Amino acid sequence: MSSTQKDNTIALDLASFTKEEIISASISTAVSMELPIAIWRMPHQSEIHLTISLGNARKLEKIDIDDLGTGFLFAPFHFGNLPALFIDADFSLSFDFEEVIQEHKTGKDESNDELGVLKAKFEGFLSQKSKVHSYHINPEKGLLSDTDYHKLIEKSVLAINENHFDKVVPARTKEISLAEGFNPVELLLNLCDSYANAFVSFVSIPEKGTWIGATPEVLIEKRQDSFKTIALAGTQRIDPLKSISDTSWTQKEIEEQAMVSRYIINCFKKIRLREFEEVGPKTVKAGNLLHLKTSYAVNTADTNFPELATVMLELLHPTSAVAGMPKEEALSFLDIHEGIDREFFSGFLGPVNVENSTDLFVNLRCMQLLENKAILYAGAGVTLDSQPEKEYQETELKFNTLLNILNKSL
Predict the structure, then answer these.
(1) Which pairing describes strands 226-237 and 277-286: parallel, antiparallel, or unpaired?
(2) Backbone angles phi, psi at 72, to 5 degrees
(3) Model confidence pLDDT, tens digit, residues 77-119
(4) Can you spell out the DSSP letters for 283-342?
(5) Which among 14, 57, 252, 338 could disulfide-bond with 334, CB atoms 3.0 to 4.6 Å apart, if both were Cys?
(6) What are phi and psi of 383, to 5 degrees?
(7) What would the DSSP string read from start to end of 120-172?
(8) pLDDT above 90: percentage of residues in the chain
(9) Distances (CA, A) of 92 to 103, 195, 205, 300
(10) What distance in Å separates the CA atoms of residue 372 and residue 67, rounded to the nearest whole number?
(11) What gap in Å lies between CA 151 and CA 163, rounded to an integer?
(12) How confident is the model at residue 379 (pLDDT cuts 50, 70, 90)?
């Protein structure tokens, strides 16, 4: 960034502040002005990005990626019945993990009065070097369900036995207390440090609350002439004494992953797309867990299908990895029996049209931050061979993706 550019954007020398101080000032600014903010770090990268909208998050009933503009998309599990939210990139920063500011971007005229107020507040909070004491809280968050997860798994297997569907993915929640002085920025940075393979995010929106997570699952990746998605299923704990290549999988886990792969291929068939590259399945590391992963790639120039990302987003969500197969029958079962409001868990999120790229991820391994507590979310894929206790323990392993780092942050 040149000195001229810096003078035109922010008066302070951002490179003299730590990443924690910059993120803290950004969150404090958004909360004080009741504005939405998204902070994220892409897998296998060190650069951290953040964006604040000068207005409310836009509510979207339909999504056309190419028409959205630049910003951050945050969609609930029941997108279609509920709107997605879009945080326009009115004020954005990107900086690497070594605290060197790389760029400052704004989608608004530099003379915009609201933008001037935002910058002044940001500089004020930055000068104070104070830690984050607040974030947006969902005022409507009620009591959690008391559904017995073991019995829910039993009901799921019974429904599969009765041929209602082949697979279903019931979810559960866990409520934890947050220690006095809890600092979400420290948790966010520890997640970045611990889970290099994950998409790490912090999203805080007035009236909708604050979510933080580290998800391993790509929903769609859009570049200039390419589209990618993955099938990710099967879960087991990492064995530190064994190499990943020596990992063995049960028939149940292999079949579960194959269902997700077939789901993606069926989506391609619906739009008569035959030219795609398939790689896998292979065992991959995701935090403290291992999964089976198959990747799919399409050259959108060669197939003359530039709108493929928008079309596939509508077809894919919710994937069989978070709902089940067939989709409608599994969703109907979950609506009746699951007993929780997933909200944004197992929805999708990510940056849109940032540097000509869009990266959306399934919102897994996440939790919602409340006043003095947090709610964690996790699900397990149930098939004919599922055992209630094993599925319960799988959700516990998934909770630990965040809990292990949260405990380290205290």
Answers:
(1) unpaired
(2) -130, 130
(3) 999 999 999 999 999 999 885 544 444 455 555 557 889 999 9
(4) EEEETTEEEEEEEEEEETTTTT-TTHHHHHHHHHSSPTTTSEESHHHHHHHHHHHT-S--
(5) 338
(6) -125, -175
(7) HHHHHHHHHTPPP------TT--PPP---HHHHHHHHHHHHHTTS-SEE--EE
(8) 77
(9) 9, 24, 16, 29
(10) 39
(11) 19
(12) very high
Q: How far apart are CA 126 and CA 93, in angstroms?
A: 14
Give the three-state DSSP class for 179: coil
Q: Which amino acid is at 85?
A: L
The residue type found at 289 is L
Do the beta carbons of residue 153 and residue 391 sit within 8 Å? Answer: yes
pTM assigned to the model: 0.93
Residue type, 133: H
Q: Which helix (H) or strand (E) holds 377?
A: strand 373-379
Tokens of 9: 């954007």
Average pLDDT over residues 220-240: 92
List the one residue out of 198, 187, 203, 284 whose CA is nearest residue 38. Answer: 203
